[in-house]
Amino acid sequence: MEKIYLDHAATSPVHPKVIDKMINVLNQSFGNPSSIHSYGREARALLDESRTLIAQSIHAQFNEIVFTSGGTEADNYAIIGVAEAMKEKGKHIITTKIEHHAVLHTCEYLEKQGFEITYLEVNEKGQVAVEEVKAALRDDTILVTIMYGNNEVGTIQPIKEIGELLKDHQAYFHTDAVQAYGVLKINVEDLNVDLLSVSAHKINGPKGIGFIYIKTGTKLVSRLHGGEQELKRRAGTENITSIVGFAEAVKIAQEMMNEKQKLFLQFKQKFVEILEKQQIDYQINGFVETNSLPHLLNISFPGTDVEAMLVNLDLAGIAASSGSACTAGSIEPSHVLVAMFGKNSERLRNSIRFSFGLGNTLDEIEKAANEVGAIVRRVSRK
């Protein structure tokens, strides 16, 4: 049976060139980048080259990139770090109801520490209004944290407009760009963001490595204490092998970005076209083209059950998801879909996320869409 992987938003396969780079480092460059001898200097050179390349990918400065263990740590560092650094100026934080749990659960933690969190609503497309952010701003607001592109429905938020709104306010602006990085061009100067989180395993890099962009001058209390690694921002010996692999994945993603955007949009259009031809009853959650991440398509199939759909898809060799990989197996409905449609909406129980990436072909998409149509007809209660 041919297996088709359409869950790249959960994690992505490591690119062969990334694997080659990492094996080379494992074989030849085991030094500690903090050591002053030749082994350490060799490792330091690899670290500096990687940081330079990654900084350039978002138009940041070399010393504004701090490597982390992934997106979750980066989100925690940004949110708790700002909260602790700015608590004398206020304890109010603004976010949205559709953030990744790495943000939402961190905000819930801070609520228990005496901080006040405003959770903004979104519209039925999963987008927050700039006016809502403006209305929620207070003199004691110290942080606004809003994701760049949603990991479940793909909706892109008005980050640049929000950044412009906050330019003259004391509040720092953080965006979780884990799903957007590598598929969209990002310029932190144009966006006016102070903090930005990224994870390597979403862009065909290794798991367990990410980075946080920290704009020069941003006040942030470190979360790890020990040595003076990572520009004194994050203690602990750097994971050189994964960092080099991450940098290679970034290089490939930057080179292939335009091509991937066109290809993934073609995948989306073909998928929907086949459902139309088969006269399948469906609804798109979010956007298909504009204001949407190119690699992500979330579809509601009225009259079906998400668990039955996923089981049948898996039996057919198709890997898809009901939403965030971090809530896989949970009986709780998607908090993103609840925010978009309400807790009583049927979409909470019949929506599937398909996400595209390395290795997918148009032929695979056609086969998957046809199989999805057949499964919907088989399991539909209508």
How would you describe the overall organization of this protein?
The protein is α/β, with parallel strands linked by helices. It folds into two domains: 4-12 and 257-379, Aspartate Aminotransferase, domain 1, CATH 3.90.1150; 16-251, Type I PLP-dependent aspartate aminotransferase-like (Major domain) (Aspartate Aminotransferase, domain 2), CATH 3.40.640.10. 41% of the residues lie in helices and 13% in strands. The chain has a seven-stranded mixed sheet with strand order 2-8-7-6-5-3-4, sandwiched between helices. A three-stranded antiparallel sheet has the order 9-10-12. The protein starts with a strand and ends with a helix.
Feature tags:
globular; Aspartate Aminotransferase, domain 1; alpha/beta; three-stranded antiparallel β-sheet; 12 strands; about 40% helix; Aspartate Aminotransferase, domain 2; single chain; about 375 residues; 2 domains; about 15% strand
